[in-house]
Amino acid sequence: MEGGSLVSELFIERLNYCIYVVLLLIGLWAMLAKRNLVKKLIGMSIFQTAIILFYVSIAVKKDATIPIYLAEHDPHGSHAKVVTEQNATGKQDAYHPVELKPETVKGYANPLPHVLMLTAIVVGVATLGLALALTQRIYQGYGTIEEDELLDKLDRADERASQSPIVKEKRNAQRRKSAQQAKAKAAAGSVSKSNTAAKPSSVTKGKKKAQPKKSPSKTSATKAKPKPKS
Description:
Number of domains: 2
Structural class: mainly alpha
Strand order of the largest sheet: 1-2
Order of helices and strands: HHHEEHHHHH
Number of strands: 2
Shape: elongated
Distance between the termini: 144 Å
């Protein structure tokens, strides 16, 4: 029975608080997990709405009245209520302000949470409008509102627009070094190509020079041989 009473108290009597917690978790998840800026703003708005509803629900009282003290209920007032009633002796009875009883205090509603949440609503609307305007400006400037793409573009822009002379000197040194390395590689490649092209030509020339010349005596002898008669 105790378990059933606890469940009924948490999920039936305080169902509104459970709904506020779910809304708060949804808004927090959207703000942290989503990469789109508009989706993040929607999550922020849901988060703010859940907090406002939570505080308003806390301040609700059943059968409560507006918190206005009457003159006779103000314990620190400088005025007094004089009741002109004649008593048996013919004197007037003066009634000064009296302190409120706990039962009377419980009948008043606390206006402070409502006032604070009214201020929170105004601030939240202003913040949301400014955030949407900034999001539109970001889209016009960078062409996207995705967080990852924006971070990449901002890093590239910072690298290009860096005004630090030390950073510029380092970049120039790296560029000069890379250019020198590229030139050295190109020169080494051209030298190797020329060496490989010169080797076969020299070999062929040496082969041609090493070939022995035919002796003229043998050729003349073969030419002088008579043909056999038939």
